[in-house]
Amino acid sequence: MTATETARAGTAEGRQPLMTLDGVSQVFDTKAGPIRAVDHVDLSINPGEVLCLVGESGSGKTTAARMAAGLARPSDGKVAFDGTDIWSMKRNAFGTFRRSVQYVHQDPYASLNPTRTILQTLVAPLLKHGVVKGKKAAAERAVELLTKVDLTPAENFLLKYPHQLSGGQRQRVAVARALTLDPKIIIADESTSMLDVSIRISVLAMLGRLRDELGVGFLFITHDLAIAKYFGWHGKTAVMYLGRIVEFGPTPKIINAPTHPYTRALIDAIPEPDPDLTKTKGAGSLRSLEIPSLAHLPPGCAFHPRCPLFEDGLCDGAVPQLVEVRSGQSAACHVVARDGADAGRPDQPVA
Ligand SMILES: Nc1ncnc2c1ncn2[C@@H]1O[C@H](COP(=O)(O)OP(=O)(O)OP(=O)(O)O)[C@@H](O)[C@H]1O
After folding, report:
1. Is this model's pTM higher than 0.80 or not?
2. Which of 125, 188, 213, 282 has the smallest C-beta neighbourhood within 10 Å, fewest atoms?
C-alpha cells in the first residue's frame, strides 16, 4: 500500500473522507531563499474522525493546518472538501466550506475581538450567516453554546469582555464561536498549549465531549504526543518533521509501537512518567539536537544528521518515501523500510 493509500485508510473503511490533502506543499520566499515549509503532504479526515498532527516547532503543522482551513493556498497539490478542490469552488461553495471548517487558534486572546462582549462575539456570526433569525433567537443560541463549552451559568459571561475572562474561559469562548456555524471539522491549533496543566486538561476534556456528542471531525495540531494520546486515541496521528510526514497511523500504534526514529525520539522526550509511553523507548540517543534549517536541508532523509539509525550512503542519498511498515502504519525511513518496523530497537516491540 502506498503512503497516500495508507493516509487515506478511511476510504478503505467504507467512508468517504470529508477532507483530503493531496500532495500539498507550501513554499515561502525568505531572505535565506525559498523554503518548503510543507512538502508533498497527503492526509485525510473522515467525518467525526480525529487526526492529530504532531511535530516540533517549525515542522510545518500550522502551515498545513492553514491550507486545510482554506486560509492559505498551496503552492502545489490539492485540498478537497467533500470531494471538491476548494480552490476551484465557486464563491458560495467556498463560503460553505469555510463555515464547515473552523479554526481555533492557540491564542484566543489574539483571535477574540477585545472590544466585543462575548454575546456580541457569538451573535455576530449567527446573524451574519442566517443560522438563526432575530437577535432574541441568537442570544438564546449564544447561551446554549456557552453551556455546551461549560461556561455556566452562561448569563454570567454574556456581557463580559475577553480581558475579563481567564485563559481557559477565553479558549472555551473561542470554541463556542467555532461552534456557531455547526462545523463539520474543527482545526484546533495547539489550542491548549498556553494554558496551565489542570485547565488544559479540562479544556481537552470539554473538546473530547464535543467530539463525541456532536460528531465533529478534528484536525488537532500539537507538539506533544502525550496530548495526541489523550485526545486522539481513537483516531489517527501523523508525525511531521521539517515539512514532511515521517510517520502515520492509528494513534495507539504510533504511541505504543512507533517505528520512525523521530517518533521514538519524541516519545522519549515526554517528561511525564507515563508507563504506556516510556515502555516504547528504545530509539537510542539522537546524534544531534540541532534541527537543520529548512533553507539548507540535508540531502536524503532530513532527519539523518540526528538519527541514531543513520547509515552512510543510504540515509543521505534519496529522500525516503512514506511506505507501509505495519498494517495501517507507514513510515518514511530507509532503515525501517529495509529492516522492518522494529529496526534498531534493543528490546522487542510492545504489542
Ligand atoms: N509566512 C511565512 N513566511 C516565511 N516563512 C514562514 C511563514 N510561515 C511559516 N514560515 C516558516 O515555515 C516553517 C513552518 O512553520 P509552521 O508555523 O507551519 O510550523 P509549526 O510546526 O506550526 O511550528 P509552531 O509549533 O512553532 O507553530 C517555519 O520555518 C516558519 O518559520
Report:
1. yes
2. 213
